[in-house]
Recover the amino acids of this structure.
């Protein structure tokens, strides 16, 4: 399994407009509850896209549609199209397990496995059949370096992942995902459960990683969205019980300075939410 | 604030009423009494068993009691080694059969079964714990024993029959505790594994079982305690011959079943020796409980 070692062409600039993920007319149901409707957008490759909106407006739900994590919840249904590099991820016969290897995910609560730092990072490569210790050593080191965690943990690789601080745990989770070389990184409020210094580190890390990975981040923090993202999508559920919609999607600078939609403007100027 | 509220003088705090105080104190003492009685029960039994059994170490001798290879009360031989081996053989065999079955059932219930299936499989497993052991013994005697006899020859009394019965009896203990252990693994860890592109099987095998490992070991140890202490069902199928293990179809005896077999007619040193057996049983189960406690301390430290 040598491709696990190849860096996915770092530093290649995104040809302007190169689209990584295309979503068309996506509707999502939890049982009888219609959670999202009519979502369409193009996520640009090797950029950071932020999803913002009030609590409960379906940002995370939409994020989890992109790597089919919602499949794990019984009674959910997705209609519409999600294309990853032009291929329908909900197409017949597509293996969600393989999809998730290409579309990695970081969660709100850092969730390292209760095993050593080394084993956490080696988990993904081992799933893929990497067995040779030297090869694993290289992947672990490289992934921890990319997650800016190597210097802090290189002498304690056999210590439990849960002994690290919250911010370090979150970077360990990022290293763990990077070890399987995903093209896309979904981050579901990755900074809301950690301290401010660590938030800074993770934001810096996103800026570094976007040269090689397409990043989508759900955040409640509008300053964060403005700081880290190239493009921003604003989601809103207008009435309780109604499905949420994607109100506006565009360059972050434009969304925050001259939003086209009144509702976007009201939200970012703090009039509701 | 309205002007009226601003000028209102603060209300004085009420004193605790006499009746509240008495009720609280009475309840506290009632619970204390309950706890004391539970502990007192254990201590009294231990003291009584110790008092009645202790002389065996001088009358028979520690070495001849623990190391003796013959249990022949009529000839004055009180060696418990065959019974100790018998208990071990029966317990370990039952664990070897029952623990994988129970852990598998727990994994199924916790990770695989859809809610509807779970809603009737789980009570069914729990119901196994409510069946009286004499019923298990009866079932073993009439159903399992003849089947075993077909395989091993003889009458079918022996370890194999006891294993099969005990294996089913320890399933609820191990399965419910293992399910609890799996349930206490944080949901985030499952999600992390699936989000890494792991299959259900990989998630169970590589993340969940290791994460729940100590809880599962606890479960198996408590299952072991259940098996080693089980008396009636074993008594009915094991053959009750106080001799060394000679094969899976040949009668043996265990510490517990021997006490029941001999109690009605034992007197003198023989009776003392039976209390000696009880001391040994007590020490074994105390050891198992201590092991479980040590493990849970270990789990807290490594968290």
């Amino acid at each position: 399994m040598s491709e696990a070692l190849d860096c996915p062409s770092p530093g290649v600039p995104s040809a302007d407009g190169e689209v990584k993920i295309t979503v068309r007319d996506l509707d999502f149901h939890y049982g009888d509850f219609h959670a999202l409707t009519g979502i369409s957008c193009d996520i640009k490759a090797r950029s950071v896209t932020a999803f913002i909106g009030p609590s409960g407006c379906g940002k995370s739900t939409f994020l989890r549609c992109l790597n089919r994590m919602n499949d794990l919840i019984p009674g959910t249904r997705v209609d519409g199209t999600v294309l990853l590099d032009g291929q329908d991820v909900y197409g017949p016969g597509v293996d969600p397990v393989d999809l998730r290897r290409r579309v990695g995910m970081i969660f709100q609560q850092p969730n390292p496995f209760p095993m050593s730092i080394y084993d956490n990072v080696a988990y993904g490569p081992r799933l893929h059949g990497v067995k040779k210790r030297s090869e694993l050593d290289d992947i672990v080191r490289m992934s921890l370096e990319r997650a800016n965690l190597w210097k802090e943990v290189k002498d304690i690789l056999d210590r439990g992942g849960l002994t690290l601080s919250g911010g370090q745990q979150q970077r360990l989770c990022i290293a763990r995902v990077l070890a399987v070389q995903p093209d896309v990184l979904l981050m579901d409020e990755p900074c809301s459960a950690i301290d401010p210094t660590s938030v800074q580190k993770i934001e810096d890390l996103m800026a570094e990683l976007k040269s090689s990975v397409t990043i989508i981040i759900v955040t409640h923090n509008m300053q964060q969205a403005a700081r880290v993202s190239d493009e921003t999508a604003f989601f809103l559920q207008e009435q309780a019980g109604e499905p949420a919609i994607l109100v506006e999607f565009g360059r972050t600078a434009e969304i925050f300075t001259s939003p086209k939609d009144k509702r976007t403007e009201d939200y970012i100027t703090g009039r509701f939410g | 604030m309205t002007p009226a509220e601003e000028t209102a003088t603060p209300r004085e705090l009420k004193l605790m009423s006499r009746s509240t105080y008495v009720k609280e104190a009475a309840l506290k003492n009632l619970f204390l009494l309950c706890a004391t009685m539970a502990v007192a029960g254990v201590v009294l039994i231990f003291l009584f068993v110790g008092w009645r059994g202790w002389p065996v170490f001088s009358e028979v001798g520690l070495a001849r009691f623990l190391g003796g290879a013959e249990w022949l009360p009529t000839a004055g031989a009180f060696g418990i080694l065959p019974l100790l081996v018998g208990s071990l053989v029966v317990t370990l065999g039952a664990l070897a059969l029952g623990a994988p079955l129970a852990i598998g059932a727990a994994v199924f219930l916790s990770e695989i079964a859809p809610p509807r299936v779970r809603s009737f499989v789980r009570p069914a497993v729990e119901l196994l714990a409510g069946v009286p052991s004499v019923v298990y013994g009866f079932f073993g005697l009439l159903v399992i024993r003849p089947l075993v006899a077909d395989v091993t020859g003889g009458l079918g009394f022996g370890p194999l029959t006891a294993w099969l019965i005990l294996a089913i009896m320890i399933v609820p203990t191990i399965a419910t505790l293992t399910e609890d252990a799996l349930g206490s693994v944080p949901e985030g860890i499952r999600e992390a594994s699936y989000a890494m592109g792991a299959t259900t099987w990989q998630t169970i095998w590589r993340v969940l079982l290791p994460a729940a490992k100590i809880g599962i070991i606890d479960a198996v140890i408590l299952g072991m305690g259940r098996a080693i202490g089980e008396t009636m069902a074993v008594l009915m199928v094991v053959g009750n011959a106080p001799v060394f293990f000679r094969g899976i179809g040949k009668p043996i005896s265990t510490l517990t079943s021997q006490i029941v077999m001999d109690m009605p007619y034992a007197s003198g040193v023989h009776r003392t020796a039976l209390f000696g057996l009880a001391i040994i049983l007590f020490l074994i189960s105390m050891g198992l409980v201590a092991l479980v406690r040590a493990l849970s301390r270990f789990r807290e430290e490594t968290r």
Remarks:
- Residues 1-15 of chain A have pLDDT under 50 and may be disordered.
- The CA atoms of residues 191 and 199 of chain A lie 6 Å apart.
- Residues 19-268 of chain A form a domain with the Rossmann fold fold (CATH 3.40.50.300).
- Strands of chain A lie at 19-30, 33-44, 48-52, 76-84, 87-88, 103-106, 184-188, 214-218, 231-236, 245-251.
